[in-house]
Amino acid sequence: MAKYQNLLVAIDPDRDDQPALRRAVYLVRRNGGRIKAFLTIYDFSYEMTTLLSPEERAAMQQGVISQHTAWINQQCRFYLDEGVPIEIKVVWHNCPFEAIIQEVLSGSHDLLLKMAHQHDRFESVIFTPTDWHLLRKCPCPVWMVKDQPWPESGKALVAVNLSSEDPYHDPLNIKLVQETIELAENVDQADIHLVGACPVTSINNALELTDFSPSVYNDAIRGQHLIAMRALRQKFCIEEKFTHVEKGLPEEVISDLAEQLQAGVVVLGTLGRTGISAVLIGNTAEHAIDHLKCDLLVIKPDNFNYPFKADNDDKL
């Protein structure tokens, strides 16, 4: 049975077309399972209606929820008529990413799908988007869907970290490849490719070091990455022609190869780093969103500690 059976789709309230819902239906038609179309809504003006009683304000909120529920039902009508199992849920909540994560936890969802929006890099540092919060904090895999059709025999590109400095990366690499193989067996995937990016030392960084050759150093680092890649591919019996080790920044290497291969989805792991380091440096997954022209599936390690607890009470 396919791994992803209980899908949560974050509905975009500003679009009549829902790419994330289409991708979820694509998966369910091939893998089985069920979908929950989920929307969070909030209008601050309703909280300012102090002349109304709490009961009247609650009734107004419920009226808005009912309107949006009917709107989503219209979006899902074609799929529902075909027998695709879709549940519709709309909640009143002033923080979308918190509501989504709470729903993932309370509903035991194993995959979240959301349309990916382009973000200005400077704005992202000051105003952290919902996408970034979900990539860092959502406990289940997050599938960021680009607004484009799924390619014929679309390839799956798995971005692995081949550096041995962090002990968390080895088991995460294995998990990424395992889950991608299982996914590829249940959708129209032709091949699985592995890609690793190795850092490059510039000449400027070595000017004050005697007897230091940046090119020799870079080749040595790439050689270490090639050895690590070989060990990983052999574990899963993946042919060498489906593995790639390139010099450069991960987000650039990944996006360039994804475009070259016409990949349908890039699978990438993230440790969910938070705090100052995440704000100033950013995670590879977050940078990759704005570079990729295909879908992005982000998976957390098994020991990921999410900063939320399940809440079975809807926030109305």
UniProtKB/TrEMBL annotation:
Family indicated by similarity: Belongs to the universal stress protein A family.
Species this protein is from: Serratia symbiotica str. Tucson
Keywords (A to Z) from UniProt: Cytoplasm
Described purpose of this protein according to its UniProt entry: Required for resistance to DNA-damaging agents.
Gene giving rise to this polypeptide: uspE
Organism superkingdom: Bacteria
Residue intervals of the UspA domain: 4-146, 175-300
Subcellular location field: Cytoplasm
This protein's record includes keyword Lyase: no
Protein name: Universal stress protein E
InterPro entries in UniProt: UspA
Native organism taxonomy: Bacteria, Pseudomonadati, Pseudomonadota, Gammaproteobacteria, Enterobacterales
